[in-house]
Amino acid sequence: MSFLALRASLRKAPLSAARASRALRTPTFRKYSTEVPPQKSNTALFAGLGAAAVGGIAFYVYTSNSNAAKEAGTAVRSGVQSAKAAANFVPSKEDYQKVYNRIAEVMDEAADKDYDDGSYGPVFLRLAWHSSGTYDKESGTGGSNYATMRFEPESLHGANAGLHVAREVMEGIKKEYPWISYGDLWTLGGVCAIQEMGGPKIPWRPGRIDGFAAQVTPDGRLPDGAQGAAHLRNIFYRMGFNDQEIVALSGAHALGRCHRDRSGFDGPWTFSPVTVSNEYYRLLLEEKWVWRKWDGPKQLQDKNSKSLMMLPSDYALIQDKSMKKWVDAYAKDQDLWFNDFSDVISRLFELGVPTSQFVSSDKWVIKSTDEQ
C-alpha cells in the first residue's frame, strides 16, 4: 500500500466511527457509500496571461482614475514579465496532481491543530465556492478567474468571514508551487476537499489568472443564510443556475459547520461534517426542526439531539414546492445527487473564466489519494 493510500485509509477511519454513531441513533441511517483525456499542450496558459494583461489594462483605463490605471498597467506588465520568465516551465497534469496531493496532506494537518472536526476540507471547499459564486452573468464580472478575495473590501465581506483561515493555509501551498494561480489553487482545493472526503469526482481544469484589487466584486453577491427561497433564486439565477441546481449545490452543507464568531450562526448541519453524503437532505426531511432559543440569529435545531442546525435558507428548500421535489429526490438517491452535484459544482468553479484561457478543451479528472 502506498503512503498516500495509507493516509487516505487512516483519514476515513474516524468517518466510519461517525457513521456508526449515527446508525445507532436512528435505524433509518444509510451507509455512505475514465480514463483522463490525453494531455494537450498548455503553452496557451502563458499566452493567455499576456492576452489577459492586455484586457486588464483596457479594463482599468475604462473603470479607474488615471493613477489607478497607471498602477494597474505597471502590475500587469510585471505579471507578463514573470510569465515570460517562467515560460521554460509549462506545468503538466502531473504537476497539478502534485499540488492536489499536497492540498490533501495539508487538509489533515487541521487535526494536529485542533481545528474544527479535524480537517481543513470544509473551509477549503467554502473558499472555492465563495471565490466562484460572485459571478454575474449580465455584467460578466466576478467568478473564480481573478481570485479577488485576496483584496479588501471583498475579503471583509460578511459572507467571507472566517475564510482568512483557508487563504492563509493555502498561502503556504502557493509558496511551494508559485507557478499556480490563486484561482486555480483555490478551486483545486475545493475539488480535493470533495473527493478526499468521500464525494464524487469533480472534473476540473486550470487556466485562471490572478487579477487586481480594482476587480473586486461588490458585497451582496453570495447567499445569506438568514433569507428564503426568493433570495436564493435572486443569487443563483444571477450566476445562471436554476432551482434544481440551487438544491444540488446546497448539499455541500453536508460538510463543515457554522461559527458564532464568523457568520453568527452556530453548529454543524450533519452528524459527520467531514463526510460528503446526502445526509443533509435526509435530515432536512426526517428530523423535526424547531427554532433555537438563544441570543444568536434565527436558526433551527433538531428537536431530538439539539446538536444539529439548519439555516432559514436551508429550511426554505423544503418549504418551496419546486425545490422540495429535488430535496426528496436527493434524499432517496445519493448517486443521483453525486452526479448532479459533480456537474453543477464543476461549472460553478469555472464561472467568469473565458474558455480561451483554459489549458485544455476537456476537463481533467484528478486522482484521489486512494487511487494512487
From TrEMBL:
Entry's localization field: Mitochondrion intermembrane space; Mitochondrion matrix
Highest taxon of the lineage: Eukaryota
Molecular functions per Gene Ontology: cytochrome-c peroxidase activity; heme binding; metal ion binding
A GO CC term attached to the entry: mitochondrial intermembrane space
Coiled-coil residue spans: none
InterPro entries from the UniProt entry: Ccp1-like, Haem_peroxidase, Haem_peroxidase_sf, Peroxidase_I, Peroxidases_AS, Peroxidases_heam-ligand_BS
A GO BP entry: response to reactive oxygen species
Domain named Plant heme peroxidase family profile: residues: 180-372
Keywords from the named record: Heme, Iron, Metal-binding, Mitochondrion, Oxidoreductase, Peroxidase, Transit peptide
Catalytic activity: 2 Fe(II)-[cytochrome c] + H2O2 + 2 H(+) = 2 Fe(III)-[cytochrome c] + 2 H2O
Segment forming the signal sequence: none
Cited PANTHER family: CYTOCHROME C PEROXIDASE, MITOCHONDRIAL, THYLAKOID LUMENAL 29 KDA PROTEIN, CHLOROPLASTIC-RELATED
Function, in words: Destroys radicals which are normally produced within the cells and which are toxic to biological systems.
Family the entry assigns: Belongs to the peroxidase family. Cytochrome c peroxidase subfamily.
Name of the protein: Peroxidase
Source organism of this protein record: Wolfiporia cocos (strain MD-104)
